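#help-structures

NK: newbie question. if I give both the sequence and a SMILES, will the prediction place the ligand too? trying with zinc ion
OV: yes, paste both and it writes out the complex. here, I ran yours:
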Amino acid sequence: MVKLNTFVELGIKLVLTAGSAFFLYRDARARDYSWLMWMIICIFVFFTPGLIGSFFALLLVFAIYFSTRPKGELTPCPHCNKRVHNILAFCPFCKRAVKRECLRCHETVAWDAVICPHCRSTNLTDS
Ligand SMILES: [Zn+2]
Ligand SMILES: [Zn+2]
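OV: that's the protein plus ligand as structure tokens.
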């Protein structure tokens, strides 16, 4: 009986930590945040003794993650369609530019823009 409980407990812990690790990986990578560090933290959470211990450790991890991750919206990359943090100039997945640069005032411009909102120039980079 004790063995079965331990087995079930380990199973729940595994699903809980693996699910959180998957979410953190996706979100951190899209924001170009240190996803590797969060994966290591998830491994530590898994080895926290007891189910309740792991559960509270996870709550703490999420609280820290959400207060420290780079703020902003995720928008689809125009090349690979993966969701990417909107302040990034390059997609962390396919490494291609997700913003254009104005060749006149050198401001970054949205990918779908045809005219620079800063100086009204239409001379934008095309890759
Ligand atoms: Zn991409
Ligand atoms: Zn401009």
